[in-house]
Amino acid sequence: MADIRSLLHLPGVFAVGEFDNQGELVDYAGDISLNVARMAAMMAKANSATGNMQAAGYSDFTGKDGFSPVVGFAVSGPKKSALIVKNVGVFVDNDKADFDALRNTLNKL
Q1: What is the CATH superfamily name and number for domain 4-107?
Q2: Domain ranges, ordered by start, for the chain
Q3: Which of 45, 73, 90, 106 could form a cystine bridge with 23, CB 3.0-4.6 A?
Q4: Are 17 and 36 in contact (CB under 8 A)?
Q5: E strands along 20-87, which residues?
């Protein structure tokens, strides 16, 4: 299990979560409810699986390697975003977040 609570101190982060390989919530903290954290865990697992399928298909179709396996992804709206790397995700306020620093930090977990 990752030390996800330490991620709450990063600029822009208002919630964090960790999920297992089946998409079940392992832990969460911050300004989200338990129900939202559970839903986010399922969505993160589903999007990871979809991303891996798409990356493998793209590599097979083009003959270009390096896209698979997918390590992480982001979903961004005009004001909020979610960044997921491996089995940990952060929810952020876009105007306060340093996306490169967040990705680098998540990669080290």
Answers
A1: Dynein light chain 2a, cytoplasmic (3.30.450.30)
A2: 4-107
A3: 45
A4: no
A5: 25-30, 72-76, 80-85
